[in-house]
Amino acid sequence: MPDPQLLSPRHALSGSDRTLVDLVDRVLDRGCVIEGELWLTVAGIDLVYLGLKAVLTTPDRLLRGEA
Amino acid sequence: MIAVGLCRAEEAGEFDHVQTGPLALLWQPDGTDTDRLDRCLAAQEQLGAFLPFSPRQAPKLAAACDWIRPRIAALSAALDDLAGQGEMLVTLQPDTTGSGPPSSSGRDWLRERTLQHARLRAMQDCLRDLLPGAHLLPTSPGAPVEATVLLPPDLMHSHARTLHAACPEGVDCRVSGPWPAFGYAAALTARLTEPT
Amino acid sequence: MTAPDPTQDWPSPLAEISRLKIDPERVEQDMARLVLGLMEFLRKLMELQAVRRMDAGSLTPEEEERLGLTLMRAEEALHRLAAQFGLQPGDLSLDLGPLGRSV
């Protein structure tokens, strides 16, 4: 009998996402270099590779020279 | 042919596999990520101990064999660790479906969001208290909190009940399992792959 | 970070690379997803940072009102735009690989 409080993996597979923005926000706390990558696939063909490299920080840390 | 994971040679039975010492490397014909995930779930359900490769980055069979050969002792020990266990995955996030009427002022809206994030943090503390061995995946305020913990499947039901009971209003708690030990395996393969 | 070689035999555990597919049959929707996804990414970043400022108590009531109102409207606007292209809010999360989903 299925337990409504414990989803089986097969049932849960349509589940939640974890995305870049979440991680970026976490690193914003310190200011940090992040990298991400993504293929833009056009009509089934890998056309453009996007390598994202960014130094992210918040204004208060930038002003204090902590970036 | 793509490798999907490792088990003990004597348990491999009906799964397509090649034997490497005491280990069996399970494989399947080239397919999609979903096919491999499916095979991992079946292996987890049917085998006493299973060490999965991530379905989205599974190695080719030959490369996997080369990688395994010098690491047989460590991988056998890992299978002993995993015997009779699976991973339970806990996901906590703000429940926005039950939120009331739209905020009339910007301040109210921002306060509501701030409250959501505070509730989530509280639930995260609760999770840490209940399952000190849980591995919290990197996250941030406002993002879903995800944690994995290696457990015998029987225990997962009672932990799921406890977590749901402790979950405050405004937080959506999802508990799922038993998963193949993807988290454990990722940490292990990273450790064993580091250049020495 | 590992070189972007999708054909390598044994990628490092973090080397998976996602694909954003632009399909000839649904160019408008796919392009909208790319652009709106980037906008949603920045909007969430701003919201989360605003919450952090709230927690720190570093905002005046007027700033709270202005910031909240702007973020609230930005969210509404973005969701409205997405709906025009037949996209749900959930369609706007771009999966950028190593920092994205774990399984």
From TrEMBL, chain A:
What domain of life does the UniProt record list for this protein's source?
Bacteria
Q: Which Pfam families match?
A: Gas_vesicle
The protein's name: Gas vesicle protein
Q: Name one GO cellular component term.
A: gas vesicle
Keywords, A to Z? Gas vesicle
Organism equals Salipiger marinus
Cite the GO molecular-function annotations of the record.
structural molecule activity
The listed locations are: Gas vesicle
Automatic annotation (TrEMBL), chain B:
Taxonomy, superkingdom: Bacteria
The protein depicted here goes by the name Gas vesicle synthesis protein GvpL/GvpF
Automatic annotation (TrEMBL), chain C:
Family the UniProt entry places it in: Belongs to the gas vesicle GvpK family.
GO terms, biological process: gas vesicle organization
* Name of the featured protein: Gas vesicle protein K
Record has Ribosomal protein as a keyword: no
The UniProt keywords, alphabetically, are:
Gas vesicle
| Subcellular location, record wording | Gas vesicle
Instruction: Identify the domain of life.
Output: Bacteria
Q: Which GO terms describe its cellular component?
A: gas vesicle
